[in-house]
Inverse folding.
């Protein structure tokens, strides 16, 4: 980022109080300009297409279009806006799906204001930021998958199971997988359960890491 360059930020959250609080603090910094607010994903897409902000602070759970779907659509549009997921939810599946959708960083709403500002500046420079608790958990997940990969052959998975975990690795939820493969959500759950059992893994996120590590899918 060039010296004195202003970072244009869009705030997306369905709670007006949260948006106002973020705006009030961010506007104290001379290198950040809040260009607008959106209360849901559809409105966020409209504003991103119109204003091309540098950075978007994106809530994940919102009425209408959720944050993960919105992030995916922004990436598909080719607009170079960088997105920081800013949410209260830290479960591994949501973290992985958000990153796979194209978020540059994932932060929890308990992050300090100064850390948030630094994350905005870092993302604008091309760096990434993860909440420390999330980083530790993901490292644990990778470690467990590494151990499993040494003992289990990917050939033990059926063709359909491979298709399902590839879509998991791409950040798809069960409903989206079912629609894409023309199967029921119940069948998707069965394939995921069978894959976890065969690979001696315990969580969906580990399946996604396994698929990437073993080149079942290219990200």
């Amino acid at each position: 980022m060039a010296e004195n360059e202003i970072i244009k930020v869009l705030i997306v959250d369905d709670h007006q109080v949260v948006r106002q609080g973020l705006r009030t603090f961010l506007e104290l910094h001379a290198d950040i300009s809040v260009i607008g607010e959106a209360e849901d994903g559809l409105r966020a897409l409209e504003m991103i297409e119109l204003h091309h902000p540098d950075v978007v602070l994106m809530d994940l759970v919102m009425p209408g279009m959720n944050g993960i779907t919105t992030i995916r659509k922004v990436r598909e549009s080719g607009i170079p806006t960088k997105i920081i997921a800013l949410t209260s939810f830290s479960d591994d599946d949501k973290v992985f799906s958000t990153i796979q959708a194209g978020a540059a960083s994932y932060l929890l709403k308990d992050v300090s204001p100064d850390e948030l500002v630094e994350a905005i500046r870092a993302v604008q420079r091309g760096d990434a930021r993860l909440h420390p608790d999330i980083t530790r958990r993901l490292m644990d997940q990778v470690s467990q998958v590494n151990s499993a990969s040494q003992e289990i052959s990917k050939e033990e998975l059926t063709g359909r199971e491979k298709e399902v975990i590839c879509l998991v690795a791409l950040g798809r939820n069960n409903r989206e997988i079912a629609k894409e493969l023309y199967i029921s959500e119940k069948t998707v759950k069965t394939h995921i359960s069978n894959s976890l059992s065969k690979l001696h893994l315990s969580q969906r996120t580990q399946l996604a890491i396994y698929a990437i590590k073993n080149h079942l899918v290219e990200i």
The CA atoms of residues 149 and 169 lie 16 Å apart. Residues 132-151 form the longest helix (20 residues).
